[in-house]
From TrEMBL:
SUPFAM superfamilies xrefs: Protein kinase-like (PK-like)
Single Gene Ontology MF annotation: kinase activity
UniProt similarity note: Belongs to the fructosamine kinase family.
Superkingdom, natural source: Bacteria
PANTHER family: FRUCTOSAMINE 3 KINASE-RELATED PROTEIN, PROTEIN-RIBULOSAMINE 3-KINASE
Name this polypeptide is given: Fructosamine kinase family protein
InterPro entries: Fructo-/Ketosamine-3-kinase, Kinase-like_dom_sf
Natural source organism: Aurantiacibacter sediminis
Gene3D superfamilies with a match to the protein in the record: 3.90.1200.10, Phosphorylase Kinase, domain 1
Keywords carried by this UniProt record: Kinase, Transferase
Family annotation (Pfam families): Fructosamin_kin
């Protein structure tokens, strides 16, 4: 049975229309118009059940996320959230304070995840530098240029001196770039397309500031720990390595520049 037929059976209404939604390089969501007037977003694939669980976890913190209608058997159905792109940094800071509230959990997540063909290992670990070294940096070593891999290995050995051993565990969005943040009328409407796990909240800040430039007041509201700016290049290395593997050598300079900034 196609996902469309399953969609109709689950929602109790026939499909009247639909269109692919714009997204990132790995996006694959469809806006579905139902005959009864409702709208929903559908995604299908082997990992959408895990995405649905992440969206529910985000919503449980009080941060806005699309309501999940169904998240089983390779089909995810959720609310469609309207967005006009008018940014509201204050509301995003408020939502991140909720999302990043302290949790009594080990770093990592109950399931691994993936960006396309790139696996995201989420093995539970009590030591944060070890998690970052093993699950976010060294995991790429065999898939990239050996000279970069050697520099990553050297950096990884130094992480206990560069990162806090036990930062407050927080639920992370995990892929917090601007395309996954929906603003409407100057307020945050929803966080979408997560790659969530428990970790150091500065990881989300690092991802956000790769492409966006929030105002000074945004960072003041977050009340980040001393030294956070110096740690951002370490956390940005992970998405840069993912992009290097997905899209090739156009990201090689970005990776090597980040390593050079860190002194490696």
């Amino acid at each position: 049975m196609s996902w469309q037929h399953r969609f109709e059976a689950i929602t109790g209404s026939t499909i009247a229309g639909g269109r692919k939604l714009q997204g990132g390089d790995l996006g694959g969501a469809t806006l579905v118009d139902l005959a009864d007037g409702r709208q929903a977003v559908a995604k299908s694939g082997p990992l959408v059940t895990r995405e649905g669980a992440m969206l529910k976890a985000i919503a449980e913190t009080g941060a806005p996320a699309p309501r999940v209608w169904h998240g089983e058997d390779d089909l995810l159905i959720m609310d469609y959230v309207d967005a006009d792109g008018v940014k509201g940094w204050e509301s995003l800071a408020d939502a991140l304070a909720q999302l990043h509230a302290p949790r009594d959990e080990l770093y990592g997540w109950e399931n691994d995840y993936a960006f396309g063909t790139i696996s995201i290992a989420n093995s539970r670990t009590e030591n944060w530098p070890r998690f970052w070294a093993e699950c976010r940096l060294l995991c790429h070593a065999e898939k990239i240029d050996s000279s970069i891999a050697r520099r990553l290995e050297t950096l990884s050995k130094s992480l206990p001196d560069l990162l806090p051993a036990y930062p407050t565990p927080s639920l992370l969005h995990g892929d917090l770039w601007g395309g996954n943040i929906l603003f409407h009328q100057g307020k945050l409407a929803a966080l979408i397309d997560p790659a969530s796990y428990v970790g150091h909240r500065e990881v989300d800040v690092a991802m956000l500031t790769m492409f966006d430039h929030p105002p000074h007041e945004f960072f003041e509201a977050l009340e980040l720990e001393e030294g956070w700016r110096e740690r951002l290049p370490i956390y940005r290395l992970w998405p840069l390595l993912v992009h290097l593997r997905l899209f090739g050598d156009t990201y090689k300079n970005s990776v090597t520049n980040a390593l050079r900034t860190l002194g490696f």
